[in-house]
């Protein structure tokens, strides 16, 4: 394996047993400096501490991916470690609710986390990746967003938006 060049930003790191933390661990194990971002300071600090114990170079930033200023701060934190090589948008929860019991507030929260958060992450990360002339922008997802489960309408709609958006670059 050649020398690793660049940092990786993982947006949506919650619990240390979750997918975001696993993605961060994998890139760190590959030698990449990793910036992790999410809304919960305690969870981020625990994951950052775990990564540091393994020898990784880590930064962590608390914020909301659906807020452009926060997405910009996430990218800036990664770039303090090394030029951005990859950004991963993994942010978003799932609150299974039957459609007729789904509130507008819950639908909007899902949309903000998955769709708007993905948009803001892309808007913040792409200039750094394009200036570098290479890199990857990754959106996590699940096959459930392709099926019509009645309990997952808000999640499916917001994840589908992110999937559709990623196919248009």
pLDDT under 50 segments (min length 5)? none
Rg value: 16 Å
Question: Which superfamily, in CATH terms, is the homologous superfamily?
Answer: NAD(P)-binding Rossmann-like Domain
How many structural units, i.e. domains?
A: 1
Report how far apart the termini are: 29 Å
Average of per-residue pLDDT values: 87
CATH architecture: 3-Layer(aba) Sandwich
Q: In percent terms, what proportion of residues is strand?
A: 5-15%
The biggest sheet, with number of strands, parallel, antiparallel or mixed sense and barrel status, is: 5 strands, parallel
What is the number of helices? 5
- Read across the widest sheet, the strand sequence of neighbours is 3-2-1-4-5
Write up this protein.
The chain is built from 5 helices and 5 strands. The protein is of the alpha/beta class. Strands 3-2-1-4-5 form a 5-stranded parallel β-sheet, sandwiched between helices. Helix 1 links the parallel strand 1 and strand 2. It is globular. The mean pLDDT is 87.
Secondary structure layout plus pairing:
Blueprint: E1 7-11, H1 19-29, E2 34-38, H2 41-53, E3 58-62, H3 68-81, E4 84-89, H4 104-132, E5 136-139, H5 153-166
Helix pairs in contact: 3-4, 4-5
Q: Can you give keywords for this protein?
A:
169 residues; 5 strands; 48% helix
Write a compact overview of the structure shown.
The chain has 169 residues and is α/β, with parallel strands linked by helices. The chain contains five helices and five strands, in the order βαβαβαβαβα. It has one domain (7-166): Rossmann fold (3-Layer(aba) Sandwich).
